[in-house]
Amino acid sequence: MPAPAPLHLFSPFLPKIHPLTPTPFSCKPPNLSTTTRPFSVLMSSSLSRQSSIASIAPLEAILFDIDGTLVDSDPIHYYAFREMLQEVGFNGGVPISEEFFIKNISGMHNEELCHVLFPDWDLQQARKFLDDKEVMFRRLAAEQLKPVAGLDKLCKWVEDHDLKRAAVTNAPRPNAEMIISLLGLEKFFQLVVIGSECDRAKPFPDPYLKALQGLGVSSGNTFVFEDSASGIKAGVAAGMPVVGLATRNPEKLLLDAGATMVIKDYTESNLWTALEDIVKKTGATKVTT
User: Fold this and answer.
1) In what order do the strands lie in the sheet with 261-263?
2) pTM of the model
3) Separation of alpha carbons 142 and 217, rounded Å
4) Residue 239: which domain range?
5) CA of 287: how far to CAs of 42, 104, 276, in Å?
6) Is 67 annotated in the active site?
7) Which region is the signal sequence (predicted)?
8) Residue 7 lies in a domain
9) Is residue 252 a part of any domain in this protein?
10) Catalytic option among 65, 72, 74, 227
Protein backbone atom coordinates (compact mmCIF):
# COMPACT_ATOMS: atom_id res chain seq x y z
CA MET A 1 0.00 0.00 0.00
CA PRO A 2 1.42 3.46 -0.86
CA ALA A 3 2.37 5.95 1.81
CA PRO A 4 -0.42 8.05 3.34
CA ALA A 5 -1.37 11.16 1.42
CA PRO A 6 -0.57 14.50 3.08
CA LEU A 7 -3.32 16.51 4.73
CA HIS A 8 -3.37 19.02 1.86
CA LEU A 9 -4.68 16.24 -0.40
CA PHE A 10 -8.08 17.92 -0.80
CA SER A 11 -8.64 20.99 -2.93
CA PRO A 12 -9.39 24.05 -0.77
CA PHE A 13 -12.93 24.60 -2.07
CA LEU A 14 -14.63 22.61 -4.81
CA PRO A 15 -12.77 19.35 -5.33
CA LYS A 16 -11.26 18.20 -8.57
CA ILE A 17 -13.62 16.21 -10.75
CA HIS A 18 -12.60 12.72 -11.79
CA PRO A 19 -14.98 10.87 -14.14
CA LEU A 20 -16.29 7.68 -12.62
CA THR A 21 -16.18 4.49 -14.62
CA PRO A 22 -19.02 1.98 -14.40
CA THR A 23 -19.02 0.19 -11.06
CA PRO A 24 -19.98 -3.39 -10.20
CA PHE A 25 -21.89 -1.97 -7.24
CA SER A 26 -25.29 -0.30 -7.54
CA CYS A 27 -24.08 2.85 -5.82
CA LYS A 28 -25.06 5.78 -8.05
CA PRO A 29 -22.29 8.14 -9.18
CA PRO A 30 -22.49 11.57 -7.60
CA ASN A 31 -24.03 14.59 -9.28
CA LEU A 32 -20.87 16.38 -10.38
CA SER A 33 -22.34 19.86 -10.40
CA THR A 34 -19.79 22.67 -10.21
CA THR A 35 -22.27 25.54 -10.12
CA THR A 36 -21.15 28.11 -7.56
CA ARG A 37 -21.89 31.66 -6.56
CA PRO A 38 -19.07 34.24 -6.44
CA PHE A 39 -17.12 34.12 -3.18
CA SER A 40 -18.15 37.71 -2.37
CA VAL A 41 -21.81 36.72 -2.61
CA LEU A 42 -21.23 33.72 -0.33
CA MET A 43 -19.50 35.90 2.24
CA SER A 44 -22.32 38.44 2.11
CA SER A 45 -24.88 35.70 2.64
CA SER A 46 -22.86 34.26 5.52
CA LEU A 47 -22.49 37.61 7.27
CA SER A 48 -26.15 38.49 6.78
CA ARG A 49 -27.15 35.38 8.73
CA GLN A 50 -24.82 36.19 11.61
CA SER A 51 -27.64 37.76 13.62
CA SER A 52 -29.07 34.30 14.27
CA ILE A 53 -26.03 33.53 16.42
CA ALA A 54 -25.76 36.95 18.04
CA SER A 55 -29.45 36.93 18.94
CA ILE A 56 -29.04 33.95 21.28
CA ALA A 57 -29.38 35.29 24.80
CA PRO A 58 -28.67 33.90 27.19
CA LEU A 59 -26.26 31.47 25.57
CA GLU A 60 -26.11 28.33 27.72
CA ALA A 61 -24.38 25.69 25.61
CA ILE A 62 -22.39 25.00 22.45
CA LEU A 63 -22.43 21.64 20.67
CA PHE A 64 -19.53 20.46 18.51
CA ASP A 65 -19.25 17.89 15.78
CA ILE A 66 -15.85 16.14 15.81
CA ASP A 67 -14.50 15.18 12.37
CA GLY A 68 -13.79 18.33 10.35
CA THR A 69 -14.92 20.53 13.25
CA LEU A 70 -12.40 19.81 16.00
CA VAL A 71 -9.80 18.33 13.65
CA ASP A 72 -9.22 18.37 9.90
CA SER A 73 -9.68 14.63 9.51
CA ASP A 74 -11.42 14.29 6.15
CA PRO A 75 -8.17 13.85 4.16
CA ILE A 76 -7.33 10.82 6.32
CA HIS A 77 -10.83 9.36 5.97
CA TYR A 78 -10.65 9.95 2.22
CA TYR A 79 -7.27 8.25 1.94
CA ALA A 80 -8.43 5.22 3.93
CA PHE A 81 -11.62 4.83 1.90
CA ARG A 82 -9.82 5.38 -1.41
CA GLU A 83 -7.18 2.73 -0.74
CA MET A 84 -9.48 0.11 0.75
CA LEU A 85 -12.26 0.54 -1.80
CA GLN A 86 -9.75 0.19 -4.61
CA GLU A 87 -8.48 -3.04 -3.06
CA VAL A 88 -11.95 -4.63 -3.22
CA GLY A 89 -12.59 -3.47 -6.79
CA PHE A 90 -15.09 -0.73 -6.05
CA ASN A 91 -15.75 1.52 -9.06
CA GLY A 92 -14.06 -1.00 -11.32
CA GLY A 93 -10.84 -0.62 -9.37
CA VAL A 94 -10.58 3.09 -10.20
CA PRO A 95 -9.79 5.16 -7.05
CA ILE A 96 -12.74 7.20 -5.84
CA SER A 97 -12.47 10.94 -6.37
CA GLU A 98 -12.62 13.69 -3.78
CA GLU A 99 -15.96 14.68 -5.29
CA PHE A 100 -17.35 11.19 -4.75
CA PHE A 101 -16.14 11.20 -1.15
CA ILE A 102 -17.77 14.57 -0.38
CA LYS A 103 -21.06 13.73 -2.10
CA ASN A 104 -21.48 10.14 -0.93
CA ILE A 105 -19.41 9.45 2.19
CA SER A 106 -18.44 12.54 4.22
CA GLY A 107 -20.63 13.04 7.29
CA MET A 108 -22.49 9.73 7.00
CA HIS A 109 -22.47 7.04 9.65
CA ASN A 110 -21.13 3.58 8.90
CA GLU A 111 -24.40 1.69 9.11
CA GLU A 112 -25.77 3.93 6.37
CA LEU A 113 -22.59 3.53 4.34
CA CYS A 114 -23.02 -0.24 4.38
CA HIS A 115 -26.07 0.22 2.16
CA VAL A 116 -24.77 3.17 0.13
CA LEU A 117 -21.44 1.61 -0.82
CA PHE A 118 -22.24 -2.09 -0.73
CA PRO A 119 -25.95 -2.66 -1.49
CA ASP A 120 -25.21 -6.14 -2.86
CA TRP A 121 -22.91 -7.28 -0.06
CA ASP A 122 -23.86 -9.29 2.97
CA LEU A 123 -24.42 -6.79 5.79
CA GLN A 124 -21.87 -8.40 8.09
CA GLN A 125 -19.26 -8.30 5.31
CA ALA A 126 -19.94 -4.60 4.74
CA ARG A 127 -19.72 -3.87 8.47
CA LYS A 128 -16.41 -5.73 8.66
CA PHE A 129 -15.02 -3.64 5.79
CA LEU A 130 -15.99 -0.40 7.54
CA ASP A 131 -14.63 -1.61 10.87
CA ASP A 132 -11.30 -2.34 9.17
CA LYS A 133 -11.39 1.09 7.55
CA GLU A 134 -11.81 2.71 10.98
CA VAL A 135 -8.82 0.77 12.30
CA MET A 136 -6.76 2.16 9.43
CA PHE A 137 -8.09 5.67 10.09
CA ARG A 138 -7.19 5.56 13.79
CA ARG A 139 -3.68 4.32 13.02
CA LEU A 140 -3.06 7.18 10.58
CA ALA A 141 -4.89 9.80 12.63
CA ALA A 142 -2.79 9.16 15.71
CA GLU A 143 0.23 10.39 13.73
CA GLN A 144 -1.27 13.19 11.63
CA LEU A 145 -4.26 14.91 13.27
CA LYS A 146 -4.05 18.51 14.40
CA PRO A 147 -6.75 20.76 15.86
CA VAL A 148 -8.57 23.26 13.68
CA ALA A 149 -6.88 26.66 14.04
CA GLY A 150 -8.20 28.65 16.99
CA LEU A 151 -9.80 25.68 18.76
CA ASP A 152 -7.78 26.18 21.95
CA LYS A 153 -8.85 29.82 22.15
CA LEU A 154 -12.50 28.94 21.61
CA CYS A 155 -12.45 26.17 24.22
CA LYS A 156 -10.94 28.56 26.77
CA TRP A 157 -13.65 31.12 25.96
CA VAL A 158 -16.34 28.48 26.45
CA GLU A 159 -14.88 27.50 29.83
CA ASP A 160 -14.39 31.12 30.93
CA HIS A 161 -18.07 31.80 30.24
CA ASP A 162 -19.16 28.62 32.04
CA LEU A 163 -21.05 27.25 29.04
CA LYS A 164 -22.16 23.65 28.80
CA ARG A 165 -20.72 21.67 25.91
CA ALA A 166 -21.04 18.32 24.19
CA ALA A 167 -19.50 16.52 21.25
CA VAL A 168 -22.10 15.13 18.85
CA THR A 169 -20.84 12.90 16.06
CA ASN A 170 -21.68 10.18 13.56
CA ALA A 171 -18.19 8.74 14.07
CA PRO A 172 -17.82 5.41 15.89
CA ARG A 173 -17.20 5.84 19.60
CA PRO A 174 -13.57 4.57 19.43
CA ASN A 175 -12.79 7.27 16.83
CA ALA A 176 -14.53 9.99 18.83
CA GLU A 177 -12.79 9.08 22.07
CA MET A 178 -9.40 8.82 20.37
CA ILE A 179 -9.69 12.28 18.79
CA ILE A 180 -10.94 13.89 21.99
CA SER A 181 -8.06 12.27 23.86
CA LEU A 182 -5.46 13.36 21.28
CA LEU A 183 -6.71 16.94 21.68
CA GLY A 184 -6.66 16.74 25.47
CA LEU A 185 -10.37 17.57 25.66
CA GLU A 186 -11.55 14.67 27.84
CA LYS A 187 -12.44 17.04 30.68
CA PHE A 188 -13.73 19.78 28.38
CA PHE A 189 -16.69 17.82 27.00
CA GLN A 190 -19.39 17.05 29.53
CA LEU A 191 -21.14 14.66 27.16
CA VAL A 192 -20.28 12.71 24.00
CA VAL A 193 -23.22 11.64 21.82
CA ILE A 194 -22.68 9.01 19.11
CA GLY A 195 -25.11 8.92 16.19
CA SER A 196 -25.24 5.13 15.96
CA GLU A 197 -26.23 4.96 19.64
CA CYS A 198 -29.36 7.05 18.93
CA ASP A 199 -32.55 5.87 17.25
CA ARG A 200 -31.46 7.78 14.14
CA ALA A 201 -28.09 9.33 13.30
CA LYS A 202 -27.46 12.61 11.49
CA PRO A 203 -28.97 14.07 9.29
CA PHE A 204 -31.86 13.35 11.64
CA PRO A 205 -31.97 15.60 14.72
CA ASP A 206 -31.89 12.76 17.27
CA PRO A 207 -28.20 13.08 18.29
CA TYR A 208 -28.53 16.82 18.88
CA LEU A 209 -31.83 16.42 20.71
CA LYS A 210 -30.15 13.81 22.94
CA ALA A 211 -27.31 16.25 23.66
CA LEU A 212 -29.76 19.03 24.61
CA GLN A 213 -31.58 16.67 26.93
CA GLY A 214 -28.37 15.37 28.47
CA LEU A 215 -27.05 18.86 29.17
CA GLY A 216 -30.42 20.12 30.38
CA VAL A 217 -30.55 23.07 27.97
CA SER A 218 -32.98 24.28 25.32
CA SER A 219 -32.41 24.69 21.60
CA GLY A 220 -33.16 28.40 21.94
CA ASN A 221 -30.08 28.89 24.12
CA THR A 222 -27.66 26.71 22.17
CA PHE A 223 -25.85 26.70 18.84
CA VAL A 224 -23.79 24.16 16.91
CA PHE A 225 -20.44 23.94 15.11
CA GLU A 226 -20.56 21.55 12.13
CA ASP A 227 -18.57 20.89 8.95
CA SER A 228 -20.88 18.68 6.87
CA ALA A 229 -24.22 19.12 5.16
CA SER A 230 -25.55 16.10 7.03
CA GLY A 231 -24.59 17.54 10.40
CA ILE A 232 -25.88 21.01 9.60
CA LYS A 233 -29.25 19.58 8.58
CA ALA A 234 -29.38 17.67 11.88
CA GLY A 235 -28.62 20.77 13.95
CA VAL A 236 -31.16 22.88 12.09
CA ALA A 237 -33.78 20.14 12.42
CA ALA A 238 -33.14 20.16 16.18
CA GLY A 239 -34.03 23.86 16.23
CA MET A 240 -30.58 25.40 16.57
CA PRO A 241 -28.50 27.79 14.46
CA VAL A 242 -25.40 26.15 13.05
CA VAL A 243 -22.01 27.67 12.31
CA GLY A 244 -20.48 25.83 9.37
CA LEU A 245 -16.77 24.99 9.28
CA ALA A 246 -15.51 25.04 5.69
CA THR A 247 -12.44 23.02 6.56
CA ARG A 248 -12.92 20.90 3.44
CA ASN A 249 -16.51 21.06 2.20
CA PRO A 250 -17.48 23.92 -0.15
CA GLU A 251 -19.02 26.95 1.54
CA LYS A 252 -22.03 26.88 -0.77
CA LEU A 253 -22.79 23.29 0.26
CA LEU A 254 -22.83 24.31 3.93
CA LEU A 255 -24.97 27.40 3.34
CA ASP A 256 -27.42 25.44 1.23
CA ALA A 257 -27.73 22.90 4.05
CA GLY A 258 -28.85 25.70 6.38
CA ALA A 259 -25.71 27.07 8.05
CA THR A 260 -26.28 30.43 9.71
CA MET A 261 -22.73 31.50 8.91
CA VAL A 262 -19.63 29.81 7.54
CA ILE A 263 -16.06 30.18 8.77
CA LYS A 264 -12.77 28.57 7.72
CA ASP A 265 -11.58 28.13 11.31
CA TYR A 266 -12.00 29.54 14.81
CA THR A 267 -9.71 32.52 14.26
CA GLU A 268 -12.12 34.37 11.97
CA SER A 269 -13.14 37.82 13.12
CA ASN A 270 -16.81 37.45 12.13
CA LEU A 271 -17.18 34.57 14.59
CA TRP A 272 -15.67 36.56 17.44
CA THR A 273 -17.79 39.57 16.55
CA ALA A 274 -20.89 37.39 16.91
CA LEU A 275 -19.65 35.95 20.22
CA GLU A 276 -18.90 39.44 21.49
CA ASP A 277 -22.45 40.50 20.62
CA ILE A 278 -23.79 37.54 22.60
CA VAL A 279 -21.87 38.36 25.76
CA LYS A 280 -22.82 42.03 25.50
CA LYS A 281 -26.47 41.04 25.51
CA THR A 282 -26.00 38.79 28.53
CA GLY A 283 -24.01 41.41 30.45
CA ALA A 284 -20.90 39.23 30.56
CA THR A 285 -17.30 40.33 30.24
CA LYS A 286 -16.26 41.43 26.76
CA VAL A 287 -14.62 38.79 24.60
CA THR A 288 -10.90 39.31 24.11
CA THR A 289 -9.67 38.66 20.57
Assistant:
1) 192-194, 164-169, 61-64, 222-226, 242-245, 261-263
2) 0.79
3) 33
4) 40-72+147-282
5) 26, 39, 5
6) yes
7) none
8) no
9) yes
10) 65
